[in-house]
Amino acid sequence: MTNTEIHDFLQNAIDENSVMLFMKGTPQQPACGFSARTSACLNALGVRYAALDILPDPRIREELSTISNWPTIPQLFIGGELVGGCDIVTEMYESGELGDKLGVEQPEEDPEPETPQPQAPPIGLENKLE
Amino acid sequence: MPSPEELRERIEAALPGAQVNVQDLTGGGDHFRAEVESDRFAGLSRIDQHKLVYDVFGADVGGPIHALSIKTSTPSGGT
């Protein structure tokens, strides 16, 4: 897969998934505390979201940063726009802003990484990286 | 290895007048948290506020600075 193809795949994932999280690892098995916390916020709100693990190929992160102009992972996109990384998502979760943006009610309890979550099917970039 | 003082000085140089507090979260010199209060943030979205801080470090974020957690505010309060 060329860099351009990866770029197009990522742009497409952002355009087609109204809640799109790029992270290290998966929501079930996050590979970084920041990614874990960010997906936990979404899990706590019970929203359906697509997630892509950026770790399988370093070019995923490179191309994503050229799209978002944001240097770190995770990155959450809602409605095709970058909302932020772990700090911003956590702040917005705590203030209730994230729930408002996603049109869901804020739960009382803090986000727990163990919370079971409704999941969109995997996006499957891994299978196309050959 | 970057130090919290170095990060603080770089932010202060880029955003004159900012109140900056930088912590080394792990003591390992690569995971930092920066709290920055600056009037430059007024009227900007959170994303753009954080980008101003990330821009200070360019490619160092993701390189020697493995993680930089950011909290921004304006002197009048709020974000």
What's the short version?
The complex is a heterodimer of chains A (130) and B (79). Chain A is an alpha+beta fold and 130 residues long.
SSE diagram, text form:
The complex is a heterodimer of chains A (about 130) and B (about 80).
Chain A: H1 3-16, E1 19-23, H2 33-45, E2 50-53, H3 58-68, E3 75-78, E4 81-84, H4 86-95, H5 97-102
Chain B: H1 4-14, E1 19-24, E2 31-37, H2 46-57, E3 67-73
Parallel strand pairs in B: 2-3
Antiparallel strand pairs in B: 1-2
How would you describe the overall organization of this protein?
The complex is a heterodimer of chains A (130) and B (79). By secondary structure, chain A is of the alpha+beta class. Chain A has a single domain (3-103), classed as Glutaredoxin. Chain A is 42% helix and 13% strand. Chain A contains five helices and four strands, in the order αβαβαββαα. Chain A has helices spanning 3-16, 33-45, 58-68, 86-95, 97-102, and strands at residues 19-23, 50-53, 75-78, 81-84. In chain A, strands 2-1-3-4 form a four-stranded mixed β-sheet. The relative contact order of chain A is 0.23. By secondary structure, chain B is an alpha+beta fold. Chain B has one domain (4-73): GMP Synthetase, Chain A, domain 3, CATH 3.30.300.90. In chain B, 29% of the residues lie in helices and 25% in strands. Chain B has helices at 4-14, 46-57; strands at residues 19-24, 31-37, 67-73. Chain B has a three-stranded mixed β-sheet with strand order 1-2-3, with helices on one face. The longest helix of chain B has 12 residues, at 46-57. The radius of gyration of chain B is 12 Å and the shape is globular. The chains are: A alpha+beta (130), B alpha+beta (79). The interface between A and B is medium-sized, with 14 and 14 residues.
